[in-house]
Amino acid sequence: MSSEANVAKAGLEGIVAAQSSISDVNGEEGKLIYGGYDIHDLAQHATFEEVIYLLWNGKLPTSAELAALKSQLNAEAGLPAETIDLIRTLPKTANAMDMLRTVVSALGIADPDGADNSIEANERKAVRLTAKFPIIVTTFQRVRNGQQPVHPRSDLSIAGNFLYTLTGEAADEIATRTMDVAFILHADHELNASTFAARVTAATLSDMYSAVVSAIGTLKGPLHGGANEGVIKNLLEIGSVDAVEAWVKDAFAKKKKIMGFGHRVYRTVDPRATHLVEMSRKLGERTGETKWYEMSRKMEEVVGREKHLNANVDFYSASTYYALGIPTDLFTPIFACSRISGWTAHVLEQYRNNRLIRPRAEYIGPRGLKYVPIEERG
Ligand code: COA
């Protein structure tokens, strides 16, 4: 591409690449809305299932609509025997995001709607994917631990079933609501990297599973969803509140990026983090182990003072999940268990008004070279 006006913008920063009515991020004011509703309002009052309905349908459900969605999700939550067999054949040491990507890809081959790319078939696929994600993650955890998988209960919510199928015991109200709110907060975030990847794949008119597999691979990276696992690794390495300041300064001196801080769009506090801070504190107090919360607070203070960076959604989700006793390598898959609702909403939106996504590159290589036979090359 030769026009001087068309120079690349590193990381596509600030480029508007799609129209969407699913969610909106106001980075200057630190505001996030899903379908017109403020994230604070939803985190305080809604359930994850209501949010899923909102993302897929652009409106909050009536009681009857919510009941219908819940029964569809419940009916699809169990894993087919072949999927459990596949999980058993994977190495116990497999990266949990690689496992999720592989299992979702295999589910795509066996989906009852096959290659049908109609709106109705894709709505059913979205239900299956959203219902099954948490159970894939908990089944992997149990199988690698030598335990029997637990079948989800039809009377539990997605959050309740996540904890129930992880431990084999129904969780209490506080733990269940914490997971529910965490799922609400992570459900969608406009054109983040994994959602963009999903839309690019869907825009070729490839199938929904392929789009979701693209998204899982994208979420895995430490600059995106992988950051929450990086956060807990850092906290465990630091070990005490007293050691935080020196550790942060050393990391900055070595030009390292500290996971859980900074954001491409937010120039102020990430509104999702404000809920996770409180959840991390309350859960710490409940278990009598407030160290991880206190270390996180200290880290936030030092990073803010030294570099003017704010904590993002991944920062306090790490100590929240840790306080719930969830294995640390499941933190990013948990993000996926929530974001699948947003990914599928965006794929459905892309199909409704599709155009191939095909940007240009600013060519900066040489031109006009002549082919030289291999024996004459120096
Ligand atoms: N730790 C240390 N420095 C950071 C930082 C972090 N977490 N995030 C940004 N910075 C610094 C960069 O080093 C850069 O400094 P410089 O201008 O002196 O080189 C500046 O802030 C701009 O950062 P940049 O990486 O160009 O911003 P971006 O918009 O491309 O990246 C993120 C955004 C989220 C990828 C980035 O903040 C980051 O890597 N954060 C850590 C990973 C993370 O938590 N991801 C989850 C996001 S929800």
Distance between the termini: 30 Å
Helix content: 55-70%
The number of distinct helices, counting runs of at least 4 residues, comes to 16
| Unreliable sequence segments | none
Description of the structure:
Helices cover 57% and strands 3% of the residues. Strands 1-2-3 form a three-stranded antiparallel sheet. A hairpin with a 4-residue loop joins strand 1 and strand 2. The mean pLDDT is 96. Helix 8 (173-186) runs antiparallel to helix 15 and helix 10 (208-219) packs across helix 16. It is globular, with a radius of gyration of 22 Å. 44% of the residues are buried. It has helices at residues 39-45, 48-57, 63-77, 81-89, 96-110, 119-144, 158-167, 173-186, 193-202, 208-219, 227-238, 244-253, 271-287, 291-307, 313-323, 331-352; strands spanning 23-26, 31-34, 37-38. It has 378 residues and is mainly alpha-helical. It folds into two domains: 38-222 and 336-352, Citrate Synthase, domain 1, CATH 1.10.580; 227-323, Cytochrome P450-Terp, domain 2 (Cytochrome p450-Terp, domain 2), CATH 1.10.230. It is built from 16 helices and three strands. Coenzyme A is lined by residues 11, 223-224, 227, 257-264, 307, 309, 312-314.
Tell me the layout of helices and strands.
Blueprint: E1 23-26, E2 31-34, E3 37-38, H1 39-45, H2 48-57, H3 63-77, H4 81-89, H5 96-110, H6 119-144, H7 158-167, H8 173-186, H9 193-202, H10 208-219, H11 227-238, H12 244-253, H13 271-287, H14 291-307, H15 313-323, H16 331-352
Antiparallel strand pairs: 1-2, 2-3
Helix pairs in contact: 1-8, 2-16, 3-6, 4-6, 5-6, 5-10, 6-7, 6-16, 7-8, 8-13, 8-15, 8-16, 9-10, 9-16, 10-16, 11-15, 12-14, 13-14, 13-15
